[in-house]
Design goal:
heterotrimer; A mainly alpha; B alpha/beta; C mainly alpha; B: alpha/beta; D-Maltodextrin-Binding Protein, domain 2; 13 helices; 35% helix; disordered N terminus; C: MetI-like fold; 4-stranded antiparallel β-sheet; 9 helices; 70% helix
């Protein structure tokens, strides 16, 4: 087996003269790139939070000192410095449960999520159990990114399911508006929905009822994600055999009973990998909320570095740092969802 | 139904977390014993927070004075940093009770954004900052130059007006946030950076490694009267914000300071006694108690003290008061009579 | 009897649905009207005819501050299309190269292309745009010390100038960011398209005596294209929508100009609906164009 694999690999690298020269060219390029990259990122890099030493490097080596100096502001935004353990713990909890949910999605996790959500909100907001109260306007960084994505998806899913059911309805007065909403939202950029949430929601709400920027942005994210989730759920619904519905009808189940107990559980299970992908997209999309002045991970980085002349020249290192965080989360989740898909594909 | 609608409770909690009230702002502030104040995301001298979340600056002190007058405690303020574009939406949405964020009073804003400027707390004008090595010493040398500006401010339009009037063909490079515009200028993207001249001075002081590398050009290209803003349709609250600021100015005229305000209660000057609520109860007509002005002055000092602490001789920027002197000393700062 | 009951039930549900939608919309409209009135906020699209009063630094069509708002928005739309068009072309080229690279028989090339895809699609586009912009403005030399390539091209903080035409760093950042991000998705589309053509097709064509190149061009490519086209059209649409993130790096696209207009006039309702309307129209136009192309390509 091992010999077989090696010979295949050899054939795939040096099978023909053309192939062999291509391989050599790539190896040469990789070597050149890796040595330069390694030199910049490690060998010539400055790891201590020493702005003078970083400046002296003149970008010939990375200045990781900026991360050493600013990591808490980048990761947690304006959160009070002496309370940093709270968002750190909240982030760890969210990431752990997120990983678990992608690895082994099952119904029991709903309760785990409910508990973790309560704990995370308590940790961030405080005001009980001896934790100092911290207003939502001071939340930021990675926990805010995760919170926005999770709350966005959690809010968008029910709406998406209703829209998907509505779009498939035989009644035109229901299917047409649902379809119109889905297509409308999918046709416009997220930024425009965030503007809608930020500038127009205050006008739509009745007088006397108001809402903070976090709530408004969350509504914008939910309205946006729901349209995409609706299409994902619709894909799942279409994959459920028609016979299921007929059998349910034969058993005397009504429309909602059929959907709730027969069709939806199957459809959602079928759509689960696609739902997981939507969630990963949402994590990336939350970076856009910085445009309406919420300081999630991307915004927190700008806030941490732009106002500090010592560290302003080292944004690239900051970008690479948070890119690595986004990448690790998104890549890990996509791998986990793939594993889940493969595991399920086996009978 | 694996993914049941699990986070719904969390979601609701989030949505309902910041309860504020439009309409009767005064009642809401009194009920929650806290003022919701919108400030900048960080502009030294006006509103900036240190690493521990303590806010400082002229705009910040205005909020503290109002909190002291209304709630009785200058520390009872929730600070909401808002960027230039979001500031009016934040006020309209009721997220904040008061916008105290170096905001220019213009006709369009006053008349068509659903809000009211309560007065002027600082007279400013728009200027330019350039790198010294560009050897530019006057604005007319900026022909065809790229100029970094922040979106959502009056500076964009002023820049165009000036460019047209002087036939300079300036090219604005517009960024959605203060931080992004500043970053672009310091990276060398633009020949000049433009915003209010005082902001330029504090930026030079706080945001630049070697202030000697940059220069602020002598021209001021606009009038920028900055002041607090409240929602339209709440006359009581409008009056309170307006008169607390006037009280701080009046205090400077009368020589009442943070240090001597207690002693001044025994003053022989009827105007002092009236302002401090000893002789008359001015607070009643504002729906406040009689010590409102006393508490505001006790909390942050008079207008002159606020200025000196944040922008003047006691601050790192050391700006002369210029147009922001009292009217009696040749400036523009003037309070209508408090009686 | 059952039929009739079902008919009435359907009727009732639909009436209820329409009533609910109308009521919800009316409620929102009522709130909005009341809010606008009580706060004295004027509304209407009349502002489009007023002079804009602001300049657009980098514009395809000539625009000056004295011209009305609608022309400013038009200049913004032209800027959106100016960056989306080349981005679509470059995305197609890079994405196809990467997708075919992943299918290459050379394991190293396939692995490298796979690594590209995994890296670029798992990092938010906004972050990539910001990083490109930083590289283009902070790390390049100032205008006076520009890198020169013969007499034809110069590259500096002020952008790229090619034979007298100049491209700003804002434009380049948006272009590079969009291309690098979308190409990762495009590569997956291309790979899936070619991967889905059954091997038996190639074998059958070879058995008929067709040459290798002819097999690829006449048998595999048309079948793959039929799978690739709809997905690619979606990708181009999302690229165009994503170009709205230009606002973060100071490129004056439609959203950026509309945002400035919103801030100058306070007409939030009007400006946001204009943005949405224009993008919807773009989506619709693309959908129609794709349908026409698909019909042309239809397999007999």
């Amino acid at each position: 087996m091992a010999i077989g694999a090696t010979t295949t690999l050899r054939a795939r690298l040096f099978g023909s003269p053309g192939n062999a020269s291509l391989s050599l060219l790539i190896v040469a390029l990789l070597l050149w790139g890796l040595t330069h990259g390694l030199d910049w990122a490690v060998l010539s890099a400055q790891f201590r939070p020493d702005a003078e030493a970083c400046r002296a490097l003149d970008h010939a080596g990375a200045c990781w000192g900026v991360i050493a100096e600013k990591h808490s502001q980048i990761l947690f935004g304006r959160y009070p410095q002496q309370e940093m353990w709270r968002p750190a713990l909240a982030t760890a909890l969210l990431l752990a449960l997120l990983g678990q949910s992608f690895l082994r999605p099952r119904a029991g996790l709903v309760w785990a999520w409910a508990v973790v959500a309560a704990v995370v909100l308590l940790l961030l907001g405080g005001g009980a159990f001896g934790l100092a109260a911290v207003g939502a306007e001071r939340w930021g960084g990675l926990p805010l990114t995760l919170l926005l994505s999770l709350a966005g998806i959690a809010g968008a899913l029910p709406l998406g399911v209703l829209l998907a059911l509505g779009r498939r309805s035989a009644l035109p007065a229901i299917s047409v508006p649902c379809g119109a909403y889905i297509e409308l939202v999918r046709g416009v950029p997220l930024v425009s929905l965030l503007f809608l949430a930020s500038f127009l929601l205050p006008l739509f709400l009745p007088q006397g009822l108001t809402m903070g920027v976090l709530g408004r942005v969350l509504i914008g994210l939910i309205l946006f994600a729901a349209a995409y989730l609706a299409e994902v759920v619709r894909g799942g619904l279409q994959a459920v055999p028609e016979a299921q519905r007929l059998q349910a009808a034969a058993l005397g189940l009504g429309y909602w009973q059929t959907q709730r107990w027969v069709i939806l559980p199957q459809a959602l299970r079928l759509a689960l990998p696609a739902l997981m992908n939507s969630f990963i997209s949402t994590i990336k999309e939350t970076s856009v909320v910085t445009v309406v002045s919420l300081y999630e991970l991307t915004g927190a980085l700008t806030l941490a570095l732009a106002g500090d002349p010592d560290w302003r020249p080292f944004f690239l290192e900051g970008y690479l740092f948070i890119a690595a965080i986004y990448w690790l989360i998104c890549f890990a989740l996509s791998r986990l969802s793939l594993r889940f898909e493969h595991r399920r594909a086996r009978p | 139904m694996d993914l049941r609608f699990c986070l719904l409770p969390a979601l609701l909690a989030l949505l309902l977390s910041p309860p504020a009230e439009a309409g009767k702002t005064l009642d809401a502030v009194k009920a929650r014993k806290e003022l919701f104040c919108g400030v900048s995301t960080g502009l030294a001298g006006f509103s900036a927070s240190d690493s521990r979340g303590n806010w400082q600056g002229l705009d910040v002190d205005i909020c503290k004075a109002i909190a002291a007058a209304v709630v009785g405690d200058p520390s009872r303020v929730r600070w909401t940093p808002v960027n230039a574009q979001q500031r009016f939406a934040s006020l309209q949405s009721g997220e904040i009770d008061l916008l105290s964020r170096n905001t220019t009073w213009t006709l369009t804003r006053d008349a068509s954004l659903g809000l009211h400027f309560t007065g002027v707390v600082f007279y400013d004008g728009q200027g330019f900052m350039v790198a010294k090595k560009s050897k530019i010493t006057a604005a007319r040398q900026l022909a065809n130059a790229e100029v970094c500006v922040q979106s959502g401010t009056t500076t964009e339009k002023n820049l165009s007006d000036y460019s047209r009037a002087q036939n300079l063909k300036l090219k604005p490079v517009v960024f959605e946030s203060f931080e992004a515009s500043l970053k672009a200028f310091f990276s060398g993207r633009c020949r000049a950076y433009t915003t209010d001249a005082t902001s330029l001075a504090t930026i030079l002081q706080r945001e630049v490694k070697n202030p000697g590398d940059y220069a602020i050009l002598p021209e001021l290209i606009s009038k920028e009267p900055l002041g607090p803003v409240v929602r339209r349709g709440d006359d009581e609250w409008f009056a309170i914000v307006k008169w607390v600021v006037n009280a701080l100015i009046e205090a400077e005229e009368l020589g009442i300071t943070q240090a001597n305000v207690d002693a001044q209660k025994a003053s022989g000057d009827p105007a002092v006694l009236r302002l401090l609520g000893v002789a008359e109860d001015l607070g009643k007509s504002l729906q406040l108690d009689r010590d409102w002005a006393y508490r505001a002055i006790k909390a942050v000092g008079n207008y002159g003290e606020i200025y000196e602490r944040n922008l003047g001789s006691a601050s790192p920027v050391k700006l002369a008061r210029g147009a922001n002197r009292l009217w009696s000393k040749g400036g523009l700062i003037y309070a209508p009579p408090l009686r | 009897m059952v039929e009739r009951r079902r008919y009435w039930r359907a009727f009732a549900y639909q009436a209820l649905a329409i009533a609910a939608i109308v009521a919800a919309l009316a409620y929102l409209a009522h709130n909005t009207a009341q809010n606008l009135q009580s706060r004295g906020i004027p509304s209407g699209f009349d502002f489009l005819l007023q002079a804009a009063g602001f300049d657009i630094g980098d514009s395809l069509v000539s625009f000056s501050a004295g011209e009305p708002y609608w022309q400013a928005l038009l200049a913004g739309l032209a800027n959106t299309l100016r960056v989306a068009g080349p981005a679509i072309v470059l995305t197609t080229l890079l994405g196809t190269a990467l997708g075919l690279g992943r299918l290459s028989s050379n394991a190293l090339l396939a692995g490298l292309c796979g690594a590209y895809v995994e890296v670029f699609r798992n990092i938010p586009l906004l972050l990539q745009l910001l990083a490109w912009y930083f590289v283009l403005t902070d790390l390049l030399p100032p205008f006076d010390e520009a890198w020169r390539l013969g007499g034809a091209a110069t590259l500096s903080k002020s952008g790229l100038s090619l034979f007298g035409a100049s491209l700003t760093p804002e434009f380049l950042a948006v272009l590079f960011g969009l291309v690098c991000y979308s190409a990762a998705y495009m590569a997956e589309i291309v790979r899936a398209g070619f991967g889905a053509v059954p091997r038996s097709q190639t074998e059958a064509a070879a058995a008929l005596g067709m040459a290798g190149r002819d097999i690829q061009l006449q048998v595999v490519l048309p079948q793959a294209l039929r799978l690739i086209m709809p997905a690619a059209a979606n990708q181009f649409l999302s690229l165009t929508k994503n170009s709205s993130l230009a606002i973060a790096v100071g490129y004056p696209d439609l959203v950026s100009v509309a945002n400035t207009a919103l801030n100058q006039t306070g007409r939030a309702l009007e400006c946001v609906s204009l943005i949405m309307g224009v993008y919807l129209a773009l989506s619709l136009a693309t959908a129609i164009a794709m349908r026409v192309i698909e019909r042309r390509l239809a397999w007999p």
